[in-house]
Structures are given as C-alpha cells and as structure tokens.
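Researcher: Go.
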Amino acid sequence: MVIVTGEKIFLRKANLNDAGFLLRLLNQKSFIDNIRDKGIKTQKQAEEHIEQAYLIPYQIGTPAPYVVAELSSNTSIGVCGLYQRPFFNIPDLGYAFLDDFTGKGYASEAAKLLMQYVKSEGNHPKLSAISLESNAASISLLYKVGFSRIGKIIIDNDLTPVVVFDCQL
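Model: Structure:
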C-alpha cells in the first residue's frame, strides 16, 4: 500500500516479498558501517525482521519504516520511516538506501515526503533523528530537510556517541 508519492519516488508499506531486498540493504557495507550490523543473514531472518519491524507496527499503529521505491521503475531502493527509540519520547526519522541509489536526491525526497505525511496525520508535531558524527552525508541531509543539531548521546554498548537532531513539523 502506497502511503505517499513524490516526483521520483514513493513510500509504501513493506510486505514479506521485500525480504530479498532488505537482506541486500541490511548487509551492504555502508549500512553496517553507518547504522549497524543487525545480524540478519538469511531469507527467513529477513522475513522475521519484516514481521517485527514493519508489519506489527503497521497493525498496532506505532511508528514504522516504509519501503522507498523508484517511481519510474517500481524498484525498491531504500527504506525511510519512523522508529520509536527507548531513549526518545518522540519518533526518530531514519533512512537507508542501496548504494546504487545514493547521491541522487532520493533520500532527501523520501525524508521530506515522510515529514509531510507525518505532519498531515497530526500525530507527531516533532521528530528526532540521529547520525554518527562521521556520516557527513546524513548530517547534511538532516540539515537540508529542516533538522537542527541538539547534542550528542551514547546509545549502544560500544560507547560511540551519536549526534542528535530534532525538527518541529
């Protein structure tokens, strides 16, 4: 089910048929380096991930990620969505794209579309976002779509600080 359409992309709800795409995305080096290794290595694990991270949140109405697809080809190229992290009281906007589709404006379009969608739904007047300090492209994108840097926090056991952003919708 498509939730929002832009000039070059659309965001849609994930389904179990997305397992192969997500397996590829979650295991590319840039995802592991900039986000983390989720340990999802098989088709079955990818399907279980879709159930837990996508389908259940859709069913119960909590923040969830969406698949980003290229409008011209209907090809799944990334994910963009909301995540409810235990250390934030507002949803966190997150995104990741297959390397072949980075640097083409898809991520900023996806973030803007999602922010417009969230604003129109009226459930979340403010969003947060996080990025590794070393991920200059992600930080630049967050500034471009209207986020402001508010500080740093440590969220994982590896003690690597992340930069925290927020944005009023």
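Model: The radius of gyration is 15 Å.
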